[in-house]
Amino acid sequence: MLVDAHQHFWQLADRNGAWPPPALAAIYRDFLPGDLAPLLEANGVVRTVLVQSMPNEDDTRFMLGLAERHPFIGGVVGWVDMKAPEAPARIAALAQDPMLKGLRPMLQDLDDDRWIDDVALAPAVDAMLRHGLSFDALVLPRHLPALLAFAGRHPELPIVIDHGAKPLIAQGVMAPWREDIARLAALPQVCCKLSGLVTEAGPDWDVERLRPYVDHLVASFGPRRLIWGSDWPVLNLASDYAGWIAASKALLAGLDDADRAAVFGLNARRFYRLDETA
Predict the structure, then answer these.
(1) C-alpha closest to that of 105 among 142, 166, 60
(2) Could you tell me the CATH superfamily of domain 2-277?
(3) Which H, E and C letters describe the chain, residue by residue?
(4) Rounded distance, CA 237 to CA 33, Å?
(5) Domain map of the chain by residue range?
(6) pLDDT by residue (tens digit) across 192-234?
(7) 206 Cβ neighbours under 8 A, 6+ residues apart
(8) How sure is the predictor about 277, in pLDDT bands with cuts at 50, 70 and 90?
């Protein structure tokens, strides 16, 4: 059962000029379930995880409404201001909807690279744990030391690193991303998404350019803590849905059938508890 553990929907009218800009013509339009459903059917993907793309609760409620109406959406990763005094109450309110599976602060967009390394997050994390939520880390390589400190402070919180922490594939740079990823992978509650990598490699990407980065993720996390996702429609900047699935299968061809099944679906089902709301 193929599961896409990372996709987005948006309506430009709701974004008030926020990303994406008009210059990114391939994704500068509305993307809704009717756009994705044919791609899922054509590629044998049966469930998805819908992930926030705006730092506000209206976006989260929009996604939860879509999940109620479209059965292929298995869960939602939303947003709450995790440092706000009312964060625990806001988390409790949103978590009344069983389709909410996790939260994601947009760390890559914040001015403070160490925003996540802060004891002020403890009340929000405690609320997440009470309501069985996981944490998606939208980070760049420079955020990994702070994420490591956060993960070490909260060993019970399930964490998944989005897009392999967006390594500098286009530039062919691996350090210090390589070492920082290995340190995070040593923590058993940390997983990683195999997603978003073609965007980081650029429009002239190929499988061999991605291979050293994917090989390092597989070696670091193992096939039981690596979770496949498309990052659609951002994916459209560099590839398409079928192209990324084909590349992912080529990159993971060295795994046995059970391990490939884990990466392409079972790990997402477990991490996001998708079977609870099937």
Answers:
(1) 60
(2) Metal-dependent hydrolases (3.20.20.140)
(3) CEEEEEECCECHHHCCCCCCCCCCHHHCCCECHHHHHHHHHHHCEEEEEEECCCCCHHHHHHHHHHHHHCCCEEEEEECCCCCCCCHHHHHHHHCCCCCEEEECCCHHHCCCCCCCCCHHHHHHHHHHHHCCCEEEECCCHHHHHHHHHHHHHCCCCCEEEHHHHCCCCCCCCCCCHHHHHHHHHCCCCEEEEECCHHHHHCCCCCHHHHHHHHHHHHHHHCCCCEEECCCECHHHHCCCHHHHHHHHHHHCCCCCHHHHHHHHHHHHHHHCCHHHHC
(4) 19
(5) 2-277
(6) 999 999 999 998 999 999 999 999 999 999 999 999 999 999 9
(7) none
(8) confident
Q: What is the mean pLDDT of residues 124-147?
A: 98
Query: At 155, which amino acid appears?
Result: P
Residue-wise pLDDT tens digits, 22-74: 999 999 999 999 999 999 999 999 999 999 999 999 999 999 999 999 999 99
Give the residue among 111, 19, 32 at the shortest CA–CA distance from 73: 32
d(CA 127, CA 235): 33
- pLDDT value at position 197? 98
* Cis preceding-peptide flag for 20 (omega within 30 of 0): yes
